[in-house]
Recover the amino acids of this structure.
């Protein structure tokens, strides 16, 4: 199998960054491209959620462009190039899959994950805490899930689900107390604790909190759009009671 198009794409990106290339591309840095990396990744995820393969193909191309641009910029500074990126990834995949490329015997996906974590720990000997290596740039909800899972791996877990519910409700009560005090900083702290407890409740039930919230966002948006369709006057003129009735009507028509 040849990769002529990929090789030509690498050359196109290098040309865009060349002195006689594109003024916009030549001005870009790792820092200026940071928002693009996040945006393109999210758009690829949207295509996956839509099960839209032509869209996914396009968005994966946009993600690949970000990888190639960062690699080209690094190459120009003498740091690394796309071949070094590919080699490091290839070596890591081979090392972390001894059951495929070696003699190790692993029977199921759960054991694969355990072996992956063990091999990763062996590679990252500079890490002293189980919390080392967490990306601080990912969404807070995703980060909360990862922090919680890492703590659980070393035994820091609620004894049962009821104790988790007790923690969740106690955080709500502490938020109410902060409200009574009208202490905004304390309110923010306690509200964060509510969200973190909610993430743990999702993890306990093997629910991805980020995906659950994304689905809730989409559901609310669809219901609100239906309300706008059903409205017989500007929504700003609706009373709470009228809004409530319109919301229920939208739910009924959408059947969710």
């Amino acid at each position: 199998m040849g990769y002529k198009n990929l090789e030509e794409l690498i050359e196109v990106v290098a040309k865009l960054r060349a002195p006689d290339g594109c003024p916009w591309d030549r001005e870009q840095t790792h820092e200026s491209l940071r928002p693009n990396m996040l945006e393109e990744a999210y758009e690829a995820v949207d295509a996956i959620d839509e099960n839209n393969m032509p869209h996914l193909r396009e968005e994966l191309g946009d993600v690949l462009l970000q990888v190639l641009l960062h690699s080209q910029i690094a190459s120009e500074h003498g740091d690394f190039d796309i071949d070094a990126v590919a080699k490091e990834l290839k070596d890591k995949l081979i090392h972390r899959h001894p059951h495929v490329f070696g003699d190790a015997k692993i029977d199921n996906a759960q054991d694969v994950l355990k072996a992956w974590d063990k091999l990763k720990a062996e590679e990252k000997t500079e890490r002293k805490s189980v919390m080392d290596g967490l990306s601080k740039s990912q969404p807070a909800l995703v980060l909360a899930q990862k922090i919680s899972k890492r703590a659980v791996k070393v035994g820091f877990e609620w004894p049962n689900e009821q104790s988790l519910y007790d923690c969740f409700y106690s955080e709500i009560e502490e938020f109410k107390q902060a409200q009574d005090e009208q202490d905004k900083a304390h309110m923010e702290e306690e509200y964060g604790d509510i969200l973190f407890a909610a993430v743990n409740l999702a993890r306990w039930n093997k629910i991805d909190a980020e995906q659950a919230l994304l689905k809730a966002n989409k559901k609310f948006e669809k219901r609100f759009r239906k309300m706008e369709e059903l409205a017989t006057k500007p929504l700003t003129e609706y009373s709470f009671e009228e809004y409530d009735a319109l919301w229920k009507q939208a739910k009924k028509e959408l059947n969710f």
Residues 178 and 186 are 6 Å apart (CA to CA).
